[in-house]
Amino acid sequence: MSVSLLGDGIFIVAVAWQAYAISDRPSSLAYVGLATSLPQVAMLLVGGAVSDRILRRTVLFWADFARALAVGTLAALIIVDSLQLWELYLVCGLIGVATAFAAPAFDAVVPQLVPQSELTSANAVDQFVRTFALQLVGPALGGLAVATVKPAGAFAFDALTFAFSAACVLQMKQLPPVVGYGDSAGFRHEVLEGLRYVRRHVWLWGTFVAATFTYMLFIGPTQVLLPYIVRNSLHRGASVYGAVLAVGGVGALVGAILMGRAKYPRRPVTWMYAWWTIATLAVAGYGLATKAWGLALAAFVIYGAEAAGAVIWATMKQRRVPNEMLGRVSSIDWCVSTALLPLSYALTVPVAHFLGPRTTLVLAGTLGAAVTLAFLFLPGMRAGEGARLAYRVGTLSDGKAPAARGLPPI
After folding, report:
1. Where are the domains of the chain?
2. Phi and psi for 44 in degrees, rounded to 5?
3. pTM attached to this predicted model
4. How many whole angstroms separate alpha carbon 311 and alpha carbon 187?
């Protein structure tokens, strides 16, 4: 995962500069996000059902293999100087489909590897590694790679990291199948079962819906307009963009380390929403900053607060959701949370054209923070905080099946 995420961090910088090199308009990068997110959202529920039905190591291997081929093809097209925007969009779509299978499978495999008492620490390690590779070292190397070996070399390296990850997955000891593995239930039944489970728990579906609208408000503007500001307002290169993201990675490392050393909070929902509100509000800093150091400071706060909330969120899911249901719940999480990302990318261009890139980012941060905080007060969202209830794998702490009683949303 560490090596693969390092390649992903390089990809973030390389794909932004490659899209703007072909067409120096916000729409070129916005459509990259659209092309990636649409098929990912469309396939997430299938990916979750597959990760609960097929051995998760197998799902992770083929997802890595497919992404290695896709990014390698992208590098080859640039080398022969034939890459068109539509080809870039097509490759990003293939990456989105593979990610729809990999993300829920990875979320669901963690509780199979780690004792429940160590989940908070394990998720902190996950956030630490994810941050160090994806948000700190990866973007910094991506900026240098684009400046030296050009986007083609950066994409080729990313393809190699996916291949390395696939090889590592093959070396893992085969994990035992989850409860219900190999039964005759169809995908439709399993997906519906997952949806019914989520519907019974406010802390799950409420947070999914909160993320849907918050991500719609700020993901498109930040991913499309931040590199545009660095390139066209500050008149700086890919190395500066990579450095801004790297400082954000330092913030995320700090957030992950602090949460890893802290005890699991007695009011996890409140703490999680507080951190995420701070992270979203700090997006406005991208629009207010007129120097590279201002962008870096905003990134530090955004990624640090986001990482702190993410450690709590991952631990809550893994403690509360039965393992045989976790792949589907994670896929529903990804699916609902990212459902409006295509709209976010699509709206970014006309809104930025009308209001300007900086005003768009300020508006995205302030509105997003207000929406995030509002969902904390959804009826039932914080009910039962502080109770000491927890799931074992497949059962509640009292041994009853999940549907046998309604847990308070913790």
Report:
1. 2-178+186-404
2. -65, -40
3. 0.70
4. 30
Rounded Cα–Cα distance for residues 391 and 163 (Å): 35
Backbone phi, psi, residue 145, to 5°: -65, -45
Q: How far is CA 297 from the centre of its chain?
A: 21
Task: State how far the Cα of 134 lies from the Cα of 122, in Å rounded to an integer.
Answer: 17
Give the total residue count for the chain: 410
Alpha-carbon gap, residue 37 to 34, rounded angstroms = 5
CA 21 to chain centre: 26
Q: How confident is the model at residue 178 (pLDDT cuts 50, 70, 90)?
A: low
* Helix, strand, coil percent values for the chain (each to nearest 5): 80, 0, 20
d(CA 201, CA 203): 6
**Model pLDDT for residues 11-59, shown as the tens digit of each residue:** 988 888 888 888 888 788 888 888 888 888 888 778 877 777 777 888 8
Asked: is 2-178+186-404 a CATH 1.20.1250.20 domain? The reply is: yes
Q: Is the pLDDT of residue 386 over 60?
A: no
Give the whole-angstrom CA distance, residue 142 versus residue 15: 10
Residues 359, 362, 365, 366, CA torsion sign:
negative
For the cut 60, the answer to whether the pLDDT of residue 401 exceeds it is no
Angstrom distance (rounded) from CA 44 to CA 202: 21
Q: What integer pLDDT is reported at residue 406 of this predicted model?
A: 28
CA dist 266 to 57, 129, 152, 386, 389, Å?
A: 34, 26, 48, 4, 11
Instruction: Name residue 386's amino acid.
Output: G
What sign results for the dihedral spanned by CA atoms 256, 258, 260, 264? Answer: negative
As a whole number of angstroms, the distance between CA 317 and CA 391 comes to 10
Distance from C-alpha of 224 to C-alpha of 216, rounded to nearest angstrom = 13
> Which spans in 181-267 are helix H?
187-199, 202-232, 238-261
How far apart, in whole angstroms, are the C-alpha atoms of residue 245 and residue 297? 10
SS (H, E, C) 68-109: HHHHHHHHHHHHCCCCCHHHHHHHHHHHHHHHHHHHHHHHHH
Contacts of 384 (CB under 8 A, 6+ apart): 407, 408, 409, 410
